[in-house]
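Practice problem: Putative heat shock protein
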Amino acid sequence: DYEEVKDLLQKGKAFFVDVREPKELVNDGRIPGAVNIPLNDVGVALEMSPEKFKEKYGREKPSPDDPNVIFSCRKGVRATSAMQTAHAKGYHAARFYRGSFCDWEERGGEVIKG
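Answer key — structure tokens:
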């Protein structure tokens, strides 16, 4: 939910993944603190070595038991699919942000444009 996601992001405790396509982030904006891993790349990304992951995404790879791996998209459909992929890759605690970017924006959450 919005308040939990906002709190985790502010505290730097969430590994928050936006699975929209890069052009969507440019056009619509993005949630601060999110790393962009397009939906079709999620499975491959979670199988990468920690070194390769950091090189590609600029972040430490989350551990499979991290309870704060959260997927987001525009409204929640792709995020749900990403969460299911993560579960299949051993990230059983991964979650998705219901409502995703649209919910964040509607509630007045900060959006980075460009």
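Discussion: The first strand starts at residue 15 and ends at 18. Students who identified this feature from the tokens alone can consider the problem solved.
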